[in-house]
Fold this protein.
Amino acid sequence: MRTITPLVFALLLTACSQHPQPSLYQQLGGEPGIAAITDGLLQKIEQDQRIVHHFADTDIARFRRLLAEQLCNISGGPCEYTGGTMQESHTGFNITLAHYDALVENLIDVMQQQQISISAQNQLLALLAPMYKDITYR
Amino acid sequence: MITRFTLALCCLLASASSVAGSKIVATGGASSIEGSAGGGIVPWAVINGYGSSDEWSATAFTSRVGVDDFTLNVFGASVSYDNKWEWSVARQTFKLDSIGGELRQDVFGVKYHIAGELLYTAWPQISVGLQYKKHRDFGLPQAVGARDDSGVDVYFSASKVLFDQVAGRNLLLNGTVRATKANQTGLLGFGSASDNNYQFVFEGSAAVLLNYNVALGIEFKQKPDQLNFATEQHWRDLFVAWFINKHVSVVGGYVDLGSIAGFDQQQGYYISVEGAW
Ligand code: HEM
């Protein structure tokens, strides 16, 4: 009996950890959730004097579609990202740390408004944070 | 002083929509008792306030540590630029509640953020700092064997936020290595009759960010033990930090300062309020 108890515990634990976790894509609300995040973020950018000037010549419809594709793709959703690399797309803009902070702050505000769980927010931030080196000071 | 400070903070709270820097809330850390951005007793590699690249920021703070036989009151301020440079001042008043009297010390600090970004790079954010400490009531430290009334501490800090670590929450880790001659962080002067060498000490802290505004953490501060008249021990604390917004934060904690000047088991509370612009 003594040797069996830990075994049962071990089995229970593995059973629990194998419970299918909803993907980040699902936690963000699937396609409508990501559409809402993208639109919310675009609205925030439009009102943010710190960064809006970067988008003066941007085709907003295209940017919106590509950003949604990318968020869907990196969060494990059923989308292909068809845009340029982060490095290519942001070269020539000289995006600074302050600009990056501003965008992340806007994204956080939007996710808070949409009542996305802290855990899902952090999972998404973990995927976006490393893009810093490709996006800034180019 | 304290009431005027509180008044200023209330004004700040009322005008919470006024300009702040671009850094994400809580990433400026709190003000440590030496005035440098950090936790309560440990400096971090973060730069005080919310100034991101090319932005200025300023902070003012007041802190109190109350343990069995002593009370430490601190107030201070800092200015920072470009999320790279931090200049700070702090006045510490250490009240000897059981013995009577008080010891004052001023700390002038500068910190430079060398590399890495707290949130965005795989490497931690790394900073180097200097603290020039000047004792204002050196009679007692001298009487118990301290050599100098001033000293310079040099430290390297590394800080990193790791996303989605503990029940989906972010984890903040800090490590600091300090070269110091200070006895009880300088409150009992610097060096001793027999030893005027720098000592290398480690300081660390870890905090879980429950959400964007609230962190729960622990700190550990290794200390030298140079004076013969009494043993000096490492410090530790548990804290809760509430970054109400980018203008006001409050930290409360439980501290264990070990033995101080022959008084053992000095434990008690820590409270700190910071305003940032
Ligand atoms: C969190 C990290 C970021 C992600 C995931 C991201 C994603 C994207 C994507 C998918 C595109 C479209 C690429 C294409 O046109 O092929 C794009 C373009 C763009 N991004 Fe970002 N971006 C990020 C950060 C930033 C920041 C911080 C700024 C500036 C504040 C910025 C400014 C722009 C601009 C101006 C364009 C349009 C470029 C053009 O008009 O050709 N991005 N971004």
Summary: The CA atoms of residues 64 and 166 of chain B lie 30 Å apart.
